[in-house]
């Protein structure tokens, strides 16, 4: 096994670059020591007040404010110590062509010889990995750090090649997969898109709707790549959506329930989230358009609904103030929703029959949007 | 599309049988009317008091108590009306070779012409589908009713053939899949196992541990089929586990966190759950053995832990009274856990290094258990 993985590491330029950036960080501490300075690390501040909406890029990015961690205080020294141990672990992991989960890193720190370097809890280790992402400009995926779960799937007219630890796999995402579809790996940058016959990408919030589209053959009939978001999408799902859009040069549309939480799902695909603002350019697809379910669909199609809860109303009101939703479209839709006091699920379209979504709703809406 | 699916329906004996059973149910109502009787349906009672542990089968089954639904009362008549509309929908769905989700059924009822037949909420429609399963002896899967989400995966030395709506797919669950593995479809009875080189089946609770085993090549090295449970396993996951065990004739072991909720996950794989007691013989694998994490592992390997919460303690105490856990093994382990007051996660093994689980823990434990 180790022979294979070593070979992979040598030929993976991303791993090599990630390793170099990490060692560069550590060597800065070394130079600071050598020059008699107190070691320090300057990190862009990752708070709500240092997040800016970049009109030019259409995504949230970090502002200019910086925090300095120095070894002058005991707490600061301990942070730097943890960073050094983590850098050593990551550099070794990359050299060996291995990977680990964020949770494993937390537990692994218990085996480190210096107990001050050990993490207190997983927020501590997760935060440090985010620090290292921000400072090094390398993504967590390129450190070979995995989340606990990803698990979203893709189905559509696309032939891809995935570089796995066991060699390359060429997979056609309709012909070589079962009804469950192609499982998106934790790091989709191991994928190369080889051939496709796709007209657009449709990101779908719920599993029930994803299954409906696939059963009705919507992907085959319309040259559509169906990406299942599974609620708030994992980084891997957002990353592959962005890459599909950029490399295949086709539209991305997002299809969710009609409630404020679902609009946030759309927002995280399109604009990026505050938590991962340092990665917006890597993860966000500003050109992604919102298909629905729209509050006006509730009215026009007389869909079965549930009443808005207090927390729904608060979330909608906070979206009215959110720069990401400062468009005429969103203001009208959100105000209409507050007015009617109702929300609806994607599957509420089934009240018009199981084929309504694929025969009527999506063709009409995507026609209006210029996607068809 | 419809031509294909019609063709599938004609050649699928399960669909044909399911349709006949449903129509048989409806024709009983017809006969009752014809004979001047008030229509009625006798249903095994699905409450905790009518669930028995079958020593012989090693699973939970329904007892002999029956409830009678009759049209003598308005509520009873409405239940039967809903059953008739649902039967009509399901029979048509099966005839057309289609399927739908439980949630779609609920919404679809809004389009029915008789408003008394419409469901009040999803518990109402889910409950009726369970009634029809119990009375007809046909599983939900054979009615072509899907859950909202399934999404578990499988990786291992197994070549299978899945009958999809788009034709047959032959997939090797190591060579033809990416690192994410093979996505188990909603109805695994569409799968035929063709060839395998498997020694045993390892069901794993968490995604992080599943990824660790796959990265370390545990499935390749030991001829192991790794089934990801994803927490409390979906019916599809339990069904494929049972079929793999029965048809490949190899041991099943279950590997989870060490806490009462995880022991219930083991219990639902091995013995079946109260909610689906009418399906235990279809879903449960009584021969499944528990690998760990065991409370004694916490002590022996000095694993990082969290303290038991009050609800953990209550759940452990209720397991001591549960007939499924009335063995010396479980009594000792649960009493030890209450004694030490601690629980641990699978990934806590990483505190001994990333390879400890595959190089030491699992080989030792599976050796003791006679699986290796």
UniProtKB/TrEMBL annotation, chains A, B:
One GO CC term, this protein: chromosome
Stored Pfam families: TOP6A-Spo11_Toprim, Topo_VI_alpha, TP6A_N
Keyword ATP-binding part of the UniProt annotation: yes
InterPro entries listed in its UniProt record: Spo11/TopoVI_A, Spo11/TopoVI_A_N, Spo11/TopoVI_A_sf, Topo_VI_alpha, TopoVI_A, TOPRIM_Topo6A/Spo11, WH-like_DNA-bd_sf
Domain Topoisomerase 6 subunit A/Spo11 TOPRIM: 200-366
HAMAP family membership: Top6A
Protein name: Type 2 DNA topoisomerase 6 subunit A
Source lineage: Archaea, Methanobacteriati, Methanobacteriota, Stenosarchaea group, Halobacteria
């Amino acid at each position: 096994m180790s022979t294979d993985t070593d070979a992979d590491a040598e030929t993976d330029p991303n791993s090599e670059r990630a390793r170099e950036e990490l060692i560069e960080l550590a060597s800065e501490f070394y130079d600071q020591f050598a020059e008699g300075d107190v070691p320090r690390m300057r990190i862009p501040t990752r708070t709500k007040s240092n997040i800016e909406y970049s009109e030019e890029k259409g995504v949230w990015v970090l502002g200019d404010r910086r925090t300095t961690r120095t070894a002058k205080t005991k707490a600061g020294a301990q942070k730097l110590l943890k960073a050094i141990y983590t850098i050593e672990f990551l550099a070794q992991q990359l050299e060996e062509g291995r990977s680990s989960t964020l949770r494993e890193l937390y537990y692994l720190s218990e085996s480190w010889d210096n107990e001050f370097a050990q993490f207190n809890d997983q927020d501590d280790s997760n935060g440090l990995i985010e620090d290292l992402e921000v400072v090094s400009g390398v993504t967590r995926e390129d450190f070979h750090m995995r989340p606990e779960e990803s698990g979203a799937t893709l189905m559509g007219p696309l032939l891809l090649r995935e570089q796995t630890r066991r060699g390359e796999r060429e997979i056609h995402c309709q012909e070589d997969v079962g009804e469950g579809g192609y499982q998106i790996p934790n790091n989709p940058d191991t994928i190369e898109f080889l051939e496709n016959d796709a007209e657009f990408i449709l990101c779908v919030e719920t599993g029930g709707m994803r299954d409906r589209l696939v059963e009705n053959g919507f992907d085959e009939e319309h040259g559509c790549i169906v990406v299942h978001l599974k609620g708030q999408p994992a980084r891997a799902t957002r990353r592959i959506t962005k890459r599909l859009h950029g490399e295949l040069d086709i539209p991305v549309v997002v299809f969710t329930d009609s409630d404020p939480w679902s609009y946030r799902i759309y927002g995280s695909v399109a604009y990026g989230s505050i938590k991962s603002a340092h990665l917006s350019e890597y993860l966000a697809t500003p050109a992604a358009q919102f298909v629905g379910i729209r509050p006006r669909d509730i009215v026009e199609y007389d869909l079965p609904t549930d009443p808005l809860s207090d927390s729904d109303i608060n979330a909608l009101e906070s979206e009215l103030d959110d720069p990401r939703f400062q468009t005429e479209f969103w203001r009208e839709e959100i105000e209409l929703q507050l007015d009617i006091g109702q929300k609806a699920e994607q599957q509420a379209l089934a009240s018009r029959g199981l084929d309504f979504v694929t025969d009527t709703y999506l063709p009409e809406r995507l026609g209006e949007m210029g996607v068809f």
